[in-house]
Amino acid sequence: MNNLQKSLAFIKELWYAPFIIYLIGFVFVQGAYSPFLSESFLMHKVLTVTPVSYNLYITNGIYQSLVILLPFIASFILIKQISLPHNFMIWVRRSSRFTQHKIGLFNLTSCSLLMGITMIQVLIINRDINIDATLTTLLIFFSYFVLSLLFYKTNKEICKYDLLNKQFNIFIFSSTLLIFSLISIYFYGLQSQVQTFQEYQTSNQNIEMVRLTYEDGSEKTLINMDINTEFIIGYDSSSQKMNLIPRDKIKQIETYKSKYPKSIMKYKESLIENPLAKENKKIIDLINKYYEIRVEINPDIELINSYLSLFTSKLRHSEFESMSPNILLNQMKQEKYHDKDYREYYGIVISEPEKEEGNSPGIMYKKVYVREYWKAKSYNYAFLAMSLDGVVWSIDNIEETNFSFEFD
To answer: Cβ of 19: how many Cβ atoms within 10 Å?
Structure first.
């Protein structure tokens, strides 16, 4: 019963914890989002509040609170098991006349260490130094661990002489820790977000993208940062800014995974006759034939049979299953490609075929990137062409992708 009462009393003392967690999460998220709304990038709109989902505040608040809290828990456990050096004990046990000096020295040390962490973070961001955000977390963790060790031991010795000064010491230390922690968390949020965008550009990792279709039919593709009931928030890598778009202006939202756009060479027909040029020409003709039939307004059964012959048996089975040519003909007559009027189709730009490594020996693969141009919209696709002899080529796979063409 006593243990239950103690537990309830302890929980009552932590009534403020949810507010602190929310505040920490709020500051972290604003650091990760708000600066990207600015023209001058850093701190220009530090007071701008970005309207994101509440779950982002809570989840990040819990994580960042643990980073702050765990060093104190670890040092508390450690302080119970070991004794600090004898000279330190003599320093804290001297006459109570020096208590104020001890408090001042301790808090000056705390303030200097916390300020040093913040300055390091500012330097990393301003100098665009490529340091993993995990290392910053470890630095903060270690610094808080050292501070908590000093705090526990100093406060314990001060308590023997002056209870009032103990309370004063706790208040000053807690206030200093909270202020500098919030500043540090803001910059850590910013550093983490910068690292996410840098990794997207430099590594071959997928990141979630969002494609937005406006009421007028125009489109925009962004790195997905948050989608909530009121706004869609995404990062435009070309302008290096975040876009805050009201949902009521958006007709359709599509999310998908994508890698950083590859820079692709456009196809140019070679004037020199050689085996490679002939091979590439056959693949380009294959792709052109695909689009010639796909955007045909009035296809017939002959065209449908020709269309099906463009694909490998694997792709035919996965895309059309057991659909007969007559059923496919009816479908293509009734269902428009991309659900668009064919008069809005302008044409395509095709890349140079690139050799792809396959798992099956004796089978050749080449990848071709295609950009379709439509009114107020474009689509990017990667076609995988397959051949058993280098003479007859078939389409083995079609997938939406993200790329950019090199300048001519």
So the answer is: 10
Report the 10 Å Cβ neighbour count for 242: 22
Name the band, by pLDDT with cuts 50, 70 and 90, for residue 104: low
Looking at the structure, tell me whether residues 192 and 240 fall in a common domain.
no
- 235 CB contacts (<8 Å, ≥6 apart)? 36, 197, 222, 223, 225, 241, 242, 243
Q: Are 376 and 216 in contact (CB under 8 A)?
A: yes
**How far, in Å, CA of 302 to CA of 132, rounded?**
59
Beta carbons of 353 and 278 less than 8 angstroms apart: no
- Indicate if 172 and 243 belong to the same structural domain: no
168 in Cβ contact with 103 (< 8 Å): yes
Domain containing residue 68: 2-202
Three-state DSSP state, 351: strand
Of 2-11, 27-36, 107-116, 280-289, least confident by mean pLDDT is 2-11
Q: Is the pTM of this model over 0.85?
A: no
